[in-house]
TrEMBL record, chain A:
Residues 96-127 are annotated as: Disordered. It comes from Thermoflavimicrobium dichotomicum. Transmembrane segments: none annotated. Residues 16-71 form the XdhC- CoxI domain. It comes from the Bacteria. It holds the Pfam family XdhC_CoxI. This is XdhC and CoxI family protein.
UniProtKB/TrEMBL annotation, chain B:
It comes from Thermoflavimicrobium dichotomicum. InterPro entries: FAD/NAD-bd_sf, MoCofactor_Util/Proc, XdhC_CoxI, XdhC_Rossmann_dom. This is Xanthine and CO dehydrogenase maturation factor, XdhC/CoxF family. PANTHER family: ALDEHYDE OXIDOREDUCTASE MOLYBDENUM COFACTOR ASSEMBLY PROTEIN (PTHR30388), XANTHINE DEHYDROGENASE SUBUNIT A-RELATED (PTHR30388:SF6). Residues 111-254 form the XdhC Rossmann domain. Pfam families: XdhC_C, XdhC_CoxI. SUPFAM superfamilies: FAD/NAD(P)-binding domain.
Amino acid sequence: MRENREIALAMEEAKRAGRKMALATVVRVKGSAYRREGANGVISGGCLEPDVTEVAKQVMADGRPVLKRYDLDEDFVWGLGLGCPGTVDIWIEPVSDDGTEKVTDTSRSSVEENAEGQGFAGKEGLS
Amino acid sequence: MSGQKENSSRDLVKEPLAAWTVCLKEERAAVLSTLLESSSPALPVGARLFVPEDGEPLGDLGDASLNRLVVELARKKLDTLYPKSETCQFSLPGGGQAQVFVDVNLPPFELIIFGAGHDAIPLAKFAVQLGFKTTVVDPRPAYATEERFPGARIILADVNSWEERVNIGRRTHVVVMNHHLERDRATLRFVLNSPAPYVGVLGPRSRCQRMLEALEKEGVIFREEQLARMYNPVGLDIGAETSEEVAISILSEILAFRNGHAGGFLRGRESVHQPARR
């Protein structure tokens, strides 16, 4: 659980420094990859797994999230899989300075308004 | 749970990701859902919906019924002891599908050890290393010291002040090891009446049974459900002898319990990551 906290602190740190930021999250694992769903890392124009970093740069540039599949069977050896066979889906999304970036529909080119203010605020009972 | 940290910034946050970040930082239980893919071009990929354990949902995945289903799942996960993050498929009203990543953040799990004897030292040490927020409760100042239990919180308290000083929540695991019949009995009475999901009791079955009988004579009778949370003899069967080995045995049991796994040999098991029970 500590990892999550470190992610939050790293995001804050990048924000303070005014750096652009992308968040990469393992969202689906098939097979015996070492990390499970929910593992993530912040790529703030720095040096993480090379391919994710490349994709993250593109994500930061055009502001659209990307769902990327890595097939670890094709001897794709890197930090997440440690060479174990399996498929890992990674969601790479832009995170803007104020945390209120536009949500972009990747299947069309239109830009949606941010969900802020709509949705659920104040409707549900306390659990 | 506890109502502290009232002045946290989360009340000011109006955006799901920002609210989520606050929860990560403050180590609060919450779920963040992100729309990854959908068959409907009308749904905004990347949209987020945030559900905290102790508050209202925030955000919008672009469809009211999808929001409802996702909030329902998030609540269910927050009610589970050790929920997993995963990508789930949801059916949309028009017959389409949506892939939503449901990410769970939990506060650190706690371990409270009653008894600061020599065998509590490796237990506390390994628990701290595993990331448990670890507390040692004992009334004896010579034993319950920070030098003996680095990284653990010490509560110097006897039975009379437990109620007000020892806070046990539904993610707090408890191990009873006072090596003192009376204190163990009082501890049992206290912790089985708390929300602790796991209560490990050191010592043989006969000793534990005697304590329960003594409590019964005092008019303390536990329900089935309370006794079901008690683990005695404590630990997994690894043939532990030394206090370090016993600590490993106890913590292995706690991890297996928390993760919903059976706790045996992996060899011959078909799947490593599938829990035996939920």
